[in-house]
Amino acid sequence: MTTIYQLMEGQWRMRVMVADDSLLFREGLARLLTERGFDVMGQAGDAAWLASLVRKDPPDVVVVDIRMPPTYTAEGLTVARELRAEHPGLGVLILSQYVETHYAAQLFEEVESCGGGGAGYLLKDRVTRLGDLESGVRRVGAGGLVLDPSVVDRLLRRRRTRDPLGELTDREREVLGLMAEGRTNTAIAKAMSVTVKTIEAHVRNIFDRLDLALTEDDNRRVLAVLAYLRR
């Protein structure tokens, strides 16, 4: 992991490992990340290979395909959960070719249970948008949450009338959707062209409507996103 001395001396480059069964994809992804200022420490073609690399020298973030050999179901998510349990500060960015909200929910639930370390779920199409890719990796590495806008759209379409989220106003749902993408209050305010104080008021209302009391043990922002994912 990155040491405090590297940060103090200004020598820090976020350390990343990449896992995908496609050699061309992972080589291309590693090259893109290197060009954007990341230190790509290693590449893996399957879950066991990734686990071996991480256990030898844990990075700040692992970027892993959700479907990997041998069954091509959810090996990437499974190994990510195992590695987070072993290394609580490890950031995990899951890449998927498909919008699979149940896998996204599992990942964010893992963040809530393990604590520490960021998490993200992006579609592979996002890789072609270098700004989105770089921003996503850096947010996860900094302990933040990132959710692909396509997943947010799918979740909004599935909202039910009896769902607690149905009590939110349109603006509050918009704020919660941007929270699920991993944005800060300042970034949300900029995206919605309002003041930060306005967003803070919306966030407080969201917490109140979802009955998320302030406690020392819970991150209400994560809990709100989890409620959003589950619905």
UniProtKB/TrEMBL annotation:
Entries under InterPro entries matching the protein: CheY-like_superfamily, NreC/VraR/RcsB-like_REC, Sig_transdc_resp-reg_C-effctor, Sig_transdc_resp-reg_receiver, Tscrpt_reg_LuxR_C, WalR-like
Source species, domain of life: Bacteria
HTH luxR-type domain residues: 161-231
Response regulatory domain residues: 15-139
Any Pfam family hit: Response_reg
SMART domains given in the database record: HTH_LUXR, REC
Keyword Oxidoreductase applies: no
Gene3D superfamilies linked: 3.40.50.2300
Keywords in alphabetical order: DNA-binding, Phosphoprotein, Transcription, Transcription regulation
MF terms (GO), sorted A to Z: DNA binding
Residues where 4-aspartylphosphate is found: 65
CDD domains: LuxR_C_like, REC_NarL-like
PANTHER family: TRANSCRIPTIONAL REGULATORY PROTEIN NARL-RELATED, TWO-COMPONENT RESPONSE REGULATOR
Protein name as annotated: DNA-binding NarL/FixJ family response regulator
Species assigned in the record: Nonomuraea angiospora
